[in-house]
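Writing this down once: the sequence line spells out the residues, with the fold written below as integer tokens. This is how one looks:
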Amino acid sequence: MNKALRILIADEQHFHRMKVERVFNQLGYYRVAPVQHLEELLTLVEYGCEPFDLVVINASLAKGSLDLRGFFLDNPQVRHAMIFNDERAQNSVCTQQPIQTSTALLPDLMCIRHLMSRVDPLVSPRHDLVGHYQQKAG
């Protein structure tokens, strides 16, 4: 696991940001920055000294003012993005590397484990599943 990955969480609700951040912390990722407003996200991405490895954002934050897929797809400052609570996602999870979209109101532990298996080259999908089943059994 690469503990140096930079992760940005964007959601209007404090509880949602905290819940998602705790999942990342539980998985061993601590370089997590939570933001409440789209303007904060845009400032951090645009003026950041190094790219974010992952941005996890609630689609409702953009409120139609920004095409999130287009923004993340063409942005060298964001390596991977997950857009959740996305009504335009066709399945429960849609993958277009390096962007994932989900209709879920909030990503859960299993969703974030799967996401990190794509983002973190030091995490294998099989290892994630073993950890998931060990957690369920324990």
Remarks:
- The chain has five helices and six strands.
